[in-house]
């Protein structure tokens, strides 16, 4: 693993998938993986299999739902879409994340006291 | 809804349709891999490279698949089977361990399941009435809140008005207790029954299993034309003969023979008739033998002859019914002087039925639960030690890739198997225990006849086993969960030892066990002291060498006197019989006649509720000599005090002290039916005796000559020179010679009657003693095991100590100190616990306080002594550790 690529933080994958589904509408697992890859501009490495673990977790929480359909090149694929509960959860998590990352950012930017 | 719950629900749902979900997942991942490969090919990769690159980027598919499968469902069946199969193999591999741990659990589970079965049978099984929670008994209380001297029913006029006007009730029914004999030529058979008003069956929701119930024409004045029989009596007396319907039976004291029109459903028992509670055959917990239709007599509408039960309307709270009835009753009392001074006090039927059972069974359940906890403690300690021995195995498993969750599941499934094994044995023990309880309980637990050891025992036993598995499994599971495989694998240390942390945990468990055991021991100690106190109470009469039996002449009123006189003559003549007497109100049988009376020198009562109530008894002349009741002044009864002679009475000292505190009672008069009628002269005074209850102070009593009082049912009391049971046959023969139809029942020695009166205390004492012995043995084994483990684990330390100069006695003192601190701590905690818990026994205690210091100190000291003995062997072993050998061994 090269030094300039980071692993996906535990727990943040769920959030990223929720956001992706929220922004792009129903997608299959492959599509989600592509989108995350594209957005992260190759900074994040992702074991794409873990996307499915995350999808299962989200579905058990009732934040997303799935339906079988046909993909763009006529393959049978399962499409996931965000639910109302999921949207609510995403809003909560986004707010949390912004607050915490703001704090961490401020801490890290602190200059040494002279 | 919390999120773990949402996921749990989804996992439970996941148990269904697993196959489909698995193949869907395969399809999904397969598609993903293909899409990824195609993408790499489009980017210019060689197809072969693209395929492996895709797989690399996707991650370990097999692992993912397994992970998915396990987190989709609550448990993965094949895994569960594998765990259980492995568990069975491990248990079989060390049969000694499995047997001891299983037996330990079996003792605890058996004790608790047995008591649970009693509770299930006695308290939780509803009576065979529809919606029994709506049924309200309506006893009377005094409006001024004082205690009633004797129980009182309600006049028909009052309750019939309630029935019409109380809107919160669906209806009311009046009832009473009745007693009679089924006349048969080879000895008549007693039956106790209920006289019930027209609406009784409808209000209770009671049905017939054969024939039909009463209809309105059955309720009239005059002779009773039709009766119903109780199912149990029908089986007992008629062998379940279906042809009995439509036939007549002969009943004592009835002028006509009624027709049996139906049989009621099984399990129909009495409702309390407190006024009849002093009758010799009254048993409110028995099943009803006979149902008699009864209609209020227009001539006695104002007499308080009835007990009343009502059914509340749907959704009406008892409080509302109470308020409404109280208002109606107050209104009635304002217009009729005879109704003054009493108010209804609603009581749910099920509360009343369960009061006695609850009083004795709940403390016993508590005690059994303590035994179970103690047993769980031992099983947990055993499992923990075994877990420590298997740490290497666990470490290897973790290193090989078994998840912590999997290991935890493995450990828990082993303890579950053990508990189920123990539970199965426990069920066997419980069935035996329930049989034993039924044998020794006597009258201690009401309606015990309805309890059968069956599915309830099995269900409770296995349910408890799962609970026990959780308790006993949780402690050993913790170290397994926290296990660090690196440490364990690096340090191939000796097996069968425990680190400080585990030893501390086990010490906590043993201390808790000691505390629980002490609480049990204190409970047993208090009851034993109570029984000792009761044994020392001067009862005031003899109980040994006295035989009693209820003897009833069932033919007619005219033959009453000749029968009893002849019977006394014949029985007195039997060799070995010193005295014979007939008596109503033999001590400790609970018999007497509750009566209100006027007493010379006492003011006439202004209100019905203020009348003096004193129980009446009756006896033939030799009775006081026979019982050993001393005559204080005046004379005893004579054979000439019969129905033609002036009415006389004998009172006891308590009566004189209460009503003639400064003078002599002999020569004074009492009136039972008002001062305008001829009075009864007091001719004698006898010594006090505890006739009602050995634990209560003697209360005022009045005796009448039996020839004047002519009691229908009564006891024949016989004093013998040798064992009273040897004359039973001779007495029955003589009585039958006078009248073959005479009913002879309840043959008991007075000693037996005395024991019966203490039955609930004796039962509680036996059970608590048994439970505390069980608990003590388990705890002692636990302490022994713990100190042994401690010595084994500290071998190296002890060796070093002795190598640097510690003497044997120092080493022994060290280990002994560990044991002593543990025991003393447990005992102190146990005494504190006992002071709190033993309060539930308050109603069983006599002259002993729940926190009786003597009992606490004695039990505490005894347990410390015995427990230190349990430490003896391991302490000796510690002293004999050979430093050289021990250090080399490490």
Q: Helix fraction of chain B?
A: 40-55%
Mean pLDDT, all residues of chain A: 81
The total strand number of chain A stands at: 5
Order of helices and strands of chain A: EHEHEHEEH
Number of helices of chain A: 4
The amount of helix of chain A comes to 55-70%
Report low-confidence residues of chain B grouped into runs of 5 or more: none
User: In oligomeric terms, what are we looking at?
Assistant: heterodimer
Strand order of the largest sheet of chain B: 5-7-6-8-4-3-9-1-11
Q: Please, how many domains of chain B?
A: 5
Distance between the termini of chain A: 38 Å
Total count of domains of chain A: 1
Structural class of chain A: alpha+beta
By CATH, the topology of chain A is: Arc Repressor Mutant, subunit A
Write the layout of secondary structure elements.
The complex is a heterodimer of chains A (114) and B (890).
Chain A: E1 6-7, H1 12-24, E2 27-28, H2 29-40, E3 44-45, H3 49-61, E4 64-70, E5 76-82, H4 84-109
Parallel strand pairs in A: 1-3
Antiparallel strand pairs in A: 2-5, 4-5
Helix pairs in contact in A: 1-3, 1-4
Chain B: H1 3-14, H2 18-42, H3 47-58, H4 61-72, H5 77-93, H6 95-124, E1 135-137, E2 140-142, H7 156-165, E3 169-182, E4 189-196, H8 200-204, E5 208-211, E6 226-229, H9 231-238, E7 259-264, E8 290-293, E9 307-312, H10 318-335, E10 342-344, E11 347-348, H11 349-389, H12 391-399, H13 404-441, H14 455-482, H15 485-490, H16 500-536, E12 546-552, H17 560-572, E13 577-584, E14 593-599, E15 612-619, H18 623-627, E16 631-634, E17 648-652, H19 653-659, E18 669-671, E19 680-686, E20 702-705, H20 706-709, E21 715-720, H21 728-738, E22 743-749, H22 750-757, H23 759-793, H24 795-803, H25 808-837, H26 853-879, H27 883-889
Parallel strand pairs in B: 4-8, 6-7, 15-20, 17-19
Antiparallel strand pairs in B: 1-9, 1-11, 2-10, 3-4, 3-9, 5-7, 6-8, 12-21, 12-22, 13-15, 13-21, 14-15, 14-18, 16-19, 17-20, 18-19
Helix pairs in contact in B: 2-3, 5-13, 6-11, 6-13, 6-14, 7-10, 11-14, 11-16, 11-23, 13-14, 16-23, 16-25, 16-26, 17-21, 23-25, 23-26, 24-27, 25-26
């Amino acid at each position: 693993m090269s030094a300039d690529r980071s692993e996906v933080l535990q727990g943040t994958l769920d959030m990223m998938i929720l956001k992706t589904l929220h922004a792009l509408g129903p997608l299959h697992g492959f599509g989600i993986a592509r989108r995350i890859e594209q957005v992260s501009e190759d900074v994040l490495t992702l074991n794409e299999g873990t996307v499915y673990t995350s999808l299962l977790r989200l579905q058990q929480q009732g934040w997303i739902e799935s339906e079988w359909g046909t993909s763009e090149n006529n393959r049978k694929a399962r499409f996931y879409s965000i639910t109302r509960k999921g949207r609510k959860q995403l809003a909560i998590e986004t707010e949390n994340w912004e607050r915490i990352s703001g704090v961490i950012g401020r801490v890290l930017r602190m200059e040494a006291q002279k | 809804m919390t999120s773990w719950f949402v996921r749990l629900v989804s996992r439970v749902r996941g148990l269904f349709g697993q196959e489909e979900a698995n193949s869907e997942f395969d399809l999904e991942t397969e598609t993903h891999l293909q899409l990824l490969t195609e993408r790499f090919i489009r980017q210019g990769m060689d197809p072969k490279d693209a395929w492996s690159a895709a797989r690399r980027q996707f991650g370990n598919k097999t692992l993912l698949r397994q992970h998915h499968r396990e987190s989709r469902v609550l448990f993965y069946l094949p895994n569960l089977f594998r765990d259980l199969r492995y568990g069975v193999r491990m248990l079989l591999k060390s049969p000694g361990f499995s047997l001891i741990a299983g037996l330990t659990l079996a003792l605890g589970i058996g004790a608790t399941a047995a008591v649970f079965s009693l509770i299930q049978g006695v308290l939780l099984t509803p009576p065979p009435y529809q919606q029994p929670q709506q049924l309200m008994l309506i006893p009377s209380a005094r409006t001024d809140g004082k205690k009633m001297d004797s129980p009182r029913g309600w006049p028909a006029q009052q309750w019939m008005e309630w029935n019409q006007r109380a809107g919160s009730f669906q209806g009311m029914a009046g009832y009473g207790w009745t007693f009679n004999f089924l006349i048969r030529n080879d000895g008549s058979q007693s039956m106790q029954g209920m006289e019930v008003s027209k609406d009784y069956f409808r209000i209770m929701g009671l049905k017939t299993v054969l024939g039909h119930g009463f209809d309105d024409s059955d309720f009239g004045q005059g002779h009773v034309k039709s009766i119903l029989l109780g199912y149990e009596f029908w089986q007992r007396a008629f062998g379940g003969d279906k042809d009995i319907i439509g036939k007549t039976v002969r009943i004592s004291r009835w002028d006509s023979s009624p027709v049996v029109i139906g049989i009621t459903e099984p399990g129909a028992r009495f409702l309390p008739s407190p006024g009849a509670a002093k009758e010799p055959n009254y048993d409110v917990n028995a099943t009803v033998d006979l149902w008699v239709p009864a209609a209020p007599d227009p001539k006695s509408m104002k007499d308080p002859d009835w007990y009343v039960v009502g059914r509340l309307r749907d959704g009406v709270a008892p409080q509302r019914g109470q308020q409404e009835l109280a208002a109606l009753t107050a209104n009635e009392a304002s217009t009729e002087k005879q109704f003054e001074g009493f108010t209804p006090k609603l009581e749910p039927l099920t509360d009343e039925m369960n009061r006695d059972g609850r009083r004795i069974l709940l403390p016993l359940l508590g005690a059994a639960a303590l035994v179970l906890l103690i047993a769980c403690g031992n099983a947990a300690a055993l499992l923990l030690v075994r877990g420590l021995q298997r740490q290497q195995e666990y470490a290897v498993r973790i290193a090989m890739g078994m998840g912590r969750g999997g290991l935890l599941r493995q450990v828990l499934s082993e303890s579950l198997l053990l508990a189920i094994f123990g539970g199965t044995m426990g069920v066997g023990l419980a069935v035996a225990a329930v049989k034993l309880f039924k044998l020794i309980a006597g009258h201690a637990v009401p309606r015990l006849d309805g309890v059968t050891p069956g599915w309830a025992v099995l269900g409770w036993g296995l349910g408890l086993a799962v609970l026990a598995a959780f308790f006993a499994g949780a402690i050993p599971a913790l170290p397994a969960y926290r296990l660090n495989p690196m440490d364990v694998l690096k340090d191939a240390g000796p097996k069968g030892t425990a680190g400080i942390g585990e030893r501390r945990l086990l010490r906590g468990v043993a201390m808790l066990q000691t505390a629980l055991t002490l609480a049990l021991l204190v409970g047993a100690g208090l009851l034993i002291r109570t029984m000792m106190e009761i044994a020392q109470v001067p009862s005031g009469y003899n109980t040994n060498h006295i035989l009693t039996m209820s003897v009833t002449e069932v033919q007619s009123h005219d033959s009453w006197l000749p029968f009893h006189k002849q019977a006394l003559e014949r029985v007195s003549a039997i060799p070995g019989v010193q005295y014979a007497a007939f008596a109503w109100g033999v001590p400790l049988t609970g018999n007497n006649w509750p009566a209100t009376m006027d007493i010379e020198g006492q003011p006439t009562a202004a209100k019905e509720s203020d009348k003096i109530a004193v129980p009446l008894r009756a006896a033939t002349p030799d009775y006081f000599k026979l019982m050993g009741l001393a005559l204080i002044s005046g004379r005893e009864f004579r054979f000439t005090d019969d129905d033609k002679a002036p009415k006389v009475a004998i009172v006891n000292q308590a009566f004189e002290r209460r009503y003639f505190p400064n003078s002599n009672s002999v020569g004074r008069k009492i009136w039972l039916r008002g001062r305008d009628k001829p009075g009864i002269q007091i001719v004698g005074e006898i010594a006090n005796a505890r006739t009602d209850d050995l634990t209560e102070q003697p209360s005022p009593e009045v005796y009448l000559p039996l020839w004047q009082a002519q009691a229908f049912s009564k006891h024949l009391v016989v004093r013998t020179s040798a064992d009273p049971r040897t004359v039973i046959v001779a007495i029955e023969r003589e009585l039958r010679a006078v009248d073959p139809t005479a009913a002879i029942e309840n043959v008991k020695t007075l000693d037996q009657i005395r024991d019966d009166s203490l039955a609930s205390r004796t039962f509680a004492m036996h059970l608590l003693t048994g439970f505390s012995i069980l608990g003590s043995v388990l705890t002692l084994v636990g302490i022994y095991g713990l100190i042994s483990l401690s010595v084994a684990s500290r071998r190296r330390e002890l060796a070093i100590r002795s190598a640097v100069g510690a003497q044997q006695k120092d080493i022994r003192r060290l280990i002994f100190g560990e044991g002593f601190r543990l025991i003393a701590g447990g005992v102190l905690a146990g005494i504190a616990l006992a002071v709190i818990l033993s309060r539930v026994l308050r109603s069983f205690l006599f002259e002993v306080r729940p926190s009786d210091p003597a009992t606490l100190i004695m039990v505490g000291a005894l347990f410390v002594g015995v427990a230190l003995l349990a430490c003896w062997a391991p302490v000796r072993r510690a002293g004999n550790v050979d430093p050289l050998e021990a250090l080399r061994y490490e």
